[in-house]
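Repro:
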Amino acid sequence: MNTSKNLNKESPRSPRSPLGGYALMARMIDKGCADLGGNVGEYHFACPLDQMLFEFKGVKADDVKKLLGSGATDEQVVTWFNSHGTSKTSEEIQQWSKGVEAYRPYDNPEKKEWFSGECAKLGLKPEKTTLVEFLEADDAASFKN
């Protein structure tokens, strides 16, 4: 069973901590379990980042939340993802995960201004920063002692 992290006191796992080859999976699990446990803090389950994973696999956030609520382990969540939604090969999962890790919101005209502002708060160069790098820096800044 997943032990819910208290996201008021620590960050979820990095978006690049792969589970079953999926980027975002470990972070999504941490946020979902913390949400169920009432310890989600400033984080959000089923945020646009989580939705990228759900859309890639063709699953619904409510179904994933039920699975997490059942106390499923990380391995059980990966098994469930692999057997639900749209079938994906390990190569497709790997390619998608690489794309997630390389994604730069600065390159998206709809997100450029927002991302530039968020990066400025952390002293990052938005034109060179991936979303994953931003999230890791933001997590680190949020939980400095």
